[in-house]
Amino acid sequence: MPMKEIAKYSKCFVCGDENHIGLKARFFFDGHRQRAVCEITANELYAGYKNIFHGGITSTLLDETMIKALLAEDLFVVTAEMTVKFKLPVYSGDKLHFEGWKTGKKGPLYLTEGQAVNQRGEVVAEAKGKYIKPNPDLSARLEQSVEK
Questions:
Q1: Partner residues linked to 37 by β-bridges
Q2: What distances in angstroms separate CA 68 from CA 36, 51, 88, 93, 98, one per listed residue?
Q3: Structural domains for the chain
């Protein structure tokens, strides 16, 4: 099963191709493994310290990857809760591979997990997320903003 690009909003900080200060990350759905995936190089523009990628940006990419795993199933949700465990520093120039996947559903919450791996195959961060469908008005706004 081929990889399919996941819907995006062109002005999104993470995936928007029309956001001039954004990451311009592209997300694909691996239907065989049921995972959202993304590859990005850690850019010094997003450093927290000299030559060290900001942990908040790593967290943002993990959140986006996990939510994209749900969006690939046409689930329009928002983040309710997320935890991140940082394992290793990410240096400017590191090539990162992100994966996110749905692990289940508990009541109104969709449960996910994700990870970021560097070019040496080391897990640099892991995350767990809980996502929820918003009220009908916000849900309609989310659906109208994505470009499939």
A1: 28, 99
A2: 6, 28, 24, 24, 11
A3: 4-145 (3.10.129.10)
- φ, ψ for residue 52, nearest 5 deg: -125, 120
DSSP label at residue 50: T
Three-state secondary structure call for residue 81:
strand
Q: What is the per-residue pLDDT across 49-107, written as a single tens digit (0 to 9) for each?
A: 999 999 999 999 999 999 999 999 999 999 999 999 999 999 999 999 999 999 999 99
CA distance 98 to 105: 22
Structure tokens at 45: 């523009």
Position 112, amino acid: T
Whole-prediction pTM: 0.95
CB 5 within 8 A of CB 14: no
